[in-house]
Amino acid sequence: MGDLCVEQRQQIELLQDNLGTFRRLAGWSMEQLADRIGFSKQTASNLENKKTEMTLTQYIAIRAVLDYETQINEDNIALKFAISVLLNENRKYSPEEQKSCAAILAVAAAALAGGATPAMVLTYQIISQVFPAGGDLMVVPMLATWMSKVIPQGKEKKKGGKRNVEKLKDR
To answer: 19-35, pLDDT tens digit by residue?
Structure first.
């Protein structure tokens, strides 16, 4: 990545740092992400786990797929919010706000991927503490509403240790 400017490198690093969160918020398995982008599952895993440095071409492909997902799945407010705060408008927020938001979204993504209801409650509490209502972050209450719809209450049957994401999307 020697020919890239500092801003391009930062954007690539931000996407790679949060790739697992974006994937889980989109409701995709590693294999589904790889299929959508045209990578092998191993390449997608290596990028997400930072075993391989993301290239500009990979960044462009992943961003295109994520942007397309937000267009066709307008109900996925969490993914739109994550992309907006962590990638598109990240310069609007202090590094502390960015880290807090990344942590919040990672918890939300983990809860969506099969975490327990207490993770959702913790996320609500963190959101209300970190981002008071107002400003550009008015989408946070909508994120909380979205989470309450897609993260089931009580017990859910699991397949192979993971919640059936397709069932969650149908709600």
So the answer is: 998 998 898 999 999 99
